[in-house]
Amino acid sequence: MTDYPATRDPSFQQGGEQAAWQTLQSFFQLRGKRYFGSISSPELSQTHCSRLSAYLAWGNLSLRQVYQTLLEHWQTPGWKRSFVAFSARLHWHCHFIQKFESQSDMQFYPVNSGYDRLPRVTGELAEKRLLAWQQGQTGIPMVDACMRSLQHTGYLNFRMRAMLVSFLCHHLEVDWRYGVQHLARLFLDFEPGIHFAQFQMQAGVTGINTIRIYSPAKQGEDKDPDGSFVKKWLPELAHIPAPLVHTPWLLSSMECLMYNFELGVDYPQPIVDLKHSYAQAQELLWSWRERPEVKRENYRLLKRHVRLAAGKGGN
User: Fold this and answer.
1) 139 near 247, Cβ under 8 Å?
2) What is the per-residue pLDDT across 138-163, written as a single tens digit (0 to 9) for each?
3) Of 45, 83, 89, 268, which cross-links 139 as Cys (Cβ 3.0–4.6 Å)?
């Protein structure tokens, strides 16, 4: 039997039922008031999101306990928008777990089989791109900062998780199955029912969900406007001011001298041209969505997972 150290890593949330209830109470007493305006920020979300997902995944709290606590506080003045947003995510939690239970092979195969032959890079190029993504060495600051933050804390907010998947699958053209296990190992709140369904949604291989191709540079400028999150996790860029810190490849020679920075030495060259990879992914995904085999699968998926409205075949 292997003996594991009893010391706790302070970078990770503390486990256990007592810590779970303390986290729940602090959310409804103070932290959650700014939930609605903070859920998309990689920095603010660490404080103002509920941080309950790990406790739900590990069984320290039940979803029913969380929802009942939400109802008890529902009329708190000034919290309405945050509570509505939070309530929606609790419902999504159950929805995705139920989908996984009814189609558990989504861990290995696209839920829409029409995407089985979606063109992806292979061989040495795929391995090189995957490794750079895994190690936070892509040369795209927001991507690398998110990956390094996740490696050290086990936590990342939903939007940035979606961006990591989008970047891997759309910009780097790597098959979603090469990345899904890596993030599963990193997420402290890994829940199969949510993870595999969400990963496929963001990878654009369901056929029934909106295609979202995130621009990491724009996400950085919008969600980390002062660059504090990027600079925390990429200290090699700490001396570059925002918004330039999100696009160091655009620095002029004079700016590089001014900030004592050399691209390709102090920080990697970008692994892809974001504008080119964005346009390429957009053209591929939207054209693939119109293929007959994808549309046939869409009908099957909607019939299986979506409740029909009254008057449209429902009972």
Assistant:
1) no
2) 999 999 999 999 999 999 999 999 99
3) 268
